[in-house]
Amino acid sequence: MGMTGPGKDKLLDLEKRMNKLCIKKEDIEEKFIKASGRGGQKVNKTSSAVFLRHQKTNLTVKCGKSRSQTLNRFYALRTLIEKIEEAVMGITEEKLNKVEKIKKQKQRRRRKTQKKLKRQ
Q1: Whether CATH 3.30.160.20 fits 8-89
Q2: Count of H helices and E strands in the chain?
Q3: Which end of the chain is more exposed for a tag (fewer CB within 10 A), N or C?
Q4: Measured at the alpha carbon of residue 61, what is the angle toward residues 53 and 73, in degrees to the nearest 5?
Q5: DSSP states of 62-79 as a string?
């Protein structure tokens, strides 16, 4: 049961986000390159990884998660749009929440280890 590609609704969502940010498909340079990592001979022979560059902002993305070129293209485009959104709008609220959560976890762990050290 292999994946053929992203659903139409996900592609439409990406197109809406591109329109919102005024990103044109002509502004995105696309190259297909050989992936690295797992996949054996197949990865070494086919150019399934995708390299995207937005010419106006000069932001680049390389994606070789999947062995499918179509899926990699979708993932790369989604990541590129996220990067452009961050550049335009600053750090997103979602990322700030993640950073805060990690900080709290680290503080909690630090306190825990300090208590252990004091007991000894």
Answers
A1: yes
A2: 4, 3
A3: N
A4: 90
A5: EE-SSS-HHHHHHHHHHH
Amino acid at 34: K
Q: Positive or negative, the Cα torsion across 61, 66, 69, 75?
A: negative
The sign of the CA dihedral 14, 18, 20, 79 is positive
Two structure tokens written together for 74:
């979708």
Cα→Cα distances 24→7, 15, 54, Å: 21, 10, 9
Q: 41-98, pLDDT tens digit by residue?
A: 777 788 889 999 998 889 999 998 888 888 999 999 999 998 888 888 776 677 778 8
From 47, 44, 53, select the one nearest 76 (Cα to Cα): 53
pLDDT in tens, 5-17: 677 888 888 888 8
CB 70 within 8 A of CB 49: no
